[in-house]
Amino acid sequence: MINEKIEKALNAQLNKEFFSSYLYLSMSSYFESKNLTGMSAWMKIQANEEHLHAMKFYAYIIQKGGRAILGAIEAPANNWKSALDAFEETYTHEKFITASIDGLVNLSLEVKDHATNNFLQWFVTEQVEEEANVTKIIDDLKMIGENSYGIFMLDRELGTRQPAPPTPAAA
Ligand code: FEO
After folding, report:
1. CA angle (99 as vertex; 41, 39 as ends), nearest 5
2. Model confidence over 63-82: pLDDT tens digits?
3. Ligand 1 nearest atom to the CA of residue 97, by list position
């Protein structure tokens, strides 16, 4: 049996993870249009990972005897001023997701739902990694500035990103 408040909050997070996937796929398309194929590939992997995050919530809600509800997904932006602008929006969005996960953890403690608290810990760790990865890219972009060779090299580097190996909870 799943606590009603927890079920609702997990479903809200499910929607946010799908939105994240949509947002990063939109950024992937933007980078493709700018011929930044490495950044486009990086964002496509990110979009796929967000889809997996959403599916973790989907599977967990059902496993706990709840109902996964698929709501409307907001349309993401489709244009950015620069690569730096897009990655800064990514960082802002990830901070929002971190706060949302923290809110869920607080709720799980409030209702003494230890299973959900344990489930959420994977996301707590994941958010630390996601924020750190994006911060590094932003720092690199700031250092590079308008230098086109620097952008070219960073694009190459980001294009080498490999998808994360599947985790048991995502299966
Ligand atoms: Fe699913 Fe980027 O957090």
Report:
1. 10
2. 999 999 999 999 999 999 99
3. 3
